[in-house]
Design goal:
Layout: E1 2-7, H1 18-27, E2 30-36, H2 40-52, E3 56-60, H3 72-81, E4 87-96, H4 104-121, E5 125-130, H5 133-142, E6 150-152, H6 159-167, E7 171-174, H7 184-192, E8 198-200, H8 222-233, H9 237-251
Parallel strand pairs: 1-2, 2-3, 3-4, 4-5, 5-6, 6-7, 7-8
Helix pairs in contact: 8-9
The structure holds nickel (II) ion (NI).
Nickel (II) ion (NI) binds next to loops.
Length: 255
């Protein structure tokens, strides 16, 4: 059984066959899924999915590039949604200096506010950090993220940076990039990161693994990621599935 820790099944890319696809997942070995909010609209859709499917949980939060839409009023709404019994995290939140909008000061402000929200609601966080390692770490340290816990999703930094997140008690999310020919940096990091701290994710509909790179992704492609991690760690794919499933339960505090 596989635990999918990060997908966006609310995305328009699934409008044509969402129900058909989601119903297949448990039959194809995907035991649980966390759908990740990225904007106010996607949080609402995430709530709908959590209500409809017993194996789908949700993370409620606003992605750094969407933080321009936040204000006191809708932030209060966001907080209220975190009380849902199937809301397992605040996320995805963080900093994205690749797309670099809205201005960095706005991203940082709402990153801090959402970290504090997680602490207040006693939920872990799902961190999105792109081309912004230094500021992400600084804010996480200042906000005592080690007391909050969570996952650094779609990890794309060096093994040295991975160690800093591991020292704060965070899990590392690994997805399709591990299968890419140019994924050498991530492969090196995964060699170093203990299997007990890795969780599986797709970021569907994005980042399909080889051999489907460039196509729409879904949790059904996770076996390609499992295989790659197994070969790096020199263990069986079954072992990778079992350990990462346990890790995800701990990360999202599920039993
Ligand atoms: Ni995502």
């Amino acid at each position: 059984m596989i635990f999918e820790t990060h997908a966006h099944y609310d995305d328009d890319a699934f409008d044509e066959d969402r129900e058909l696809l989601l119903e297949q997942l448990p039959k194809q070995g995907i035991g649980r899924v966390v759908n990740i909010g990225a904007s106010l609209k996607s949080c609402q859709k995430t709530l709908d999915l959590m209500e409809k499917y017993d194996y789908i949980y949700g993370a409620i939060g606003v992605h750094p590039n969407e933080t321009g839409e936040l204000n006191e009023e809708n932030f209060a709404w966001l907080k209220k949604q975190c009380e849902h019994k199937k809301c397992v995290a605040v996320g995805e939140i963080g900093l994205d200096y690749y797309w670099d909008e809205p201005e960095r000061q706005v991203q940082k402000e709402w990153f801090r506010r959402q970290l504090r929200l997680a602490k207040e609601m006693d939920l872990p966080v799902v961190i999105h950090s792109r081309d912004a390692a230094q500021d992400t770490i600084q804010i996480m340290k200042e906000e005592h993220a080690e007391e909050i816990g969570g996952v650094v999703h779609c990890f794309a930094y060096t093994k040295e940076t991975a160690q800093i997140f591991l020292d704060m008690g965070f899990y590392i999310g690994v997805g399709g990039v591990i299968t890419f020919k140019n994924g050498k940096k991530l492969k090196e990091a995964v060699e170093d990161i203990p299997l007990e701290r890795i969780v599986l994710e797709t970021d569907s509909p994005y980042l399909s693994p080889e051999p489907y790179r460039g196509k729409r992704n879904s949790s059904l492609n996770l076996p390609f990621v499992v295989e790659q991690i197994a070969s790096i760690k020199n263990v069986t794919p079954e072992e990778v599935e079992r350990v990462t499933y346990e890790n995800a339960l701990k990360l999202y505090r599920l039993s």
